[in-house]
Amino acid sequence: MAGTKEIKAHMESVQETRKITNAMYLIASTKLQRARQELENTRPYFQALRGEIKRIFRTVGDVDSRYFYPAKGAPPLEGAYGCLVITADKGLAGAYNQNAIREALKLLDQHPDTKLFVVGEYGRRFFAQRRIPIEHSFLYTAQNPTMARAREISALLLDRFDRGELKKIFVVYTDMANAMSFQARCARVLPFHRTCFADTAATERAVTEPFEFLPSVEAVLDSMMPSYVSGFIYSALIDSFCCEQNARMTAMDSANRNGEKLLGELSLQYNRVRQAAITQSITEVSAGAKAQRQKKES
């Protein structure tokens, strides 16, 4: 059984660990609030851009663009896929990284010719250790998701798509449904289905006057779609970053509670050992005094 010295050292170690986990909880909370604010600041622009694309489809029904699936009856799209996998740069975030990697592995099982584009050091190490080829790794993006980095990723993926090297592009990210739940998703970014933009809403403005597209509707869409893809990727980066911080907060909060429970058990154990040591000392003193009295009487 451990002595009081060992138990006290263990208690001090747990207390130091709780200081670290509590600090990580506060840092994750601050980062989460800042990321949410950045997402809210940029969301109106991309919502407006999506609305304009929908208005184009409501105005011109026979739009032909390489960013959309071919019309019915055309040959199916065959070729290599591209997959942007968004993970964190470090662990200590529960199952956040494992869930995203699991979605990427599902896509690899279905389409072995998928080329991986990885965000986050955790994902890069995972695929490298298992000798899974990585087409490109974006460093320092997971901890600093900005619009500039989203445009950089979008430009690389669109260049491969335009050159025909990638027939479809997917993004594996973690979607934050609300403050309490999040889920890893595999979303197809390119090509789009026309139905994604063909639906109408009551709040949208009705098209009362015909549009004039210069030089053509295809050219207008070609100039709008890169911005839309960049916005989608930026939203995925921010969503994943928010989920990472939320998962880390949950993990650190659980660690804090476990630390408090462990400290309570160690404190109880420490008091029992200390009381046993005191009782033993009293017993030894009493026995020694009794022996001395018996010696004098004899």
Radius of gyration: 30 Å
Spans of 5+ residues with little confidence (pLDDT < 50)? none
Order of helices and strands: HEHEHEHEEHH
Overall shape: elongated
Q: For the report, how would you describe the main beta sheet?
A: 5 strands, mixed
Number of domains: 2
- The CATH homologous superfamily of the largest domain corresponds to ATP synthase, F1 complex, gamma subunit
CATH top level of the largest domain is: Alpha Beta
Number of strands: 5
Q: In which range does the helix fraction lie?
A: 55-70%
Number of helices: 6
Corresponding CATH architecture of the largest domain: 3-Layer(aba) Sandwich
Average of per-residue pLDDT values: 79
Tell me the strand percentage band. Answer: 5-15%
| CATH fold call of the largest domain | Pyruvate Kinase, Chain: A, domain 1
Task: Note down, in words, how this protein is organized.
The protein is an alpha/beta fold. The chain has 2 domains: 53 residues; 226 residues, ATP synthase, F1 complex, gamma subunit (Pyruvate Kinase, Chain: A, domain 1). It contains 6 helices and 5 strands, in the order αβαβαβαββαα. The chain has a 5-stranded mixed beta sheet, sandwiched between helices. Strand 1, helix 2 and strand 2 form a beta-alpha-beta unit. It is elongated and about 125 Å long.
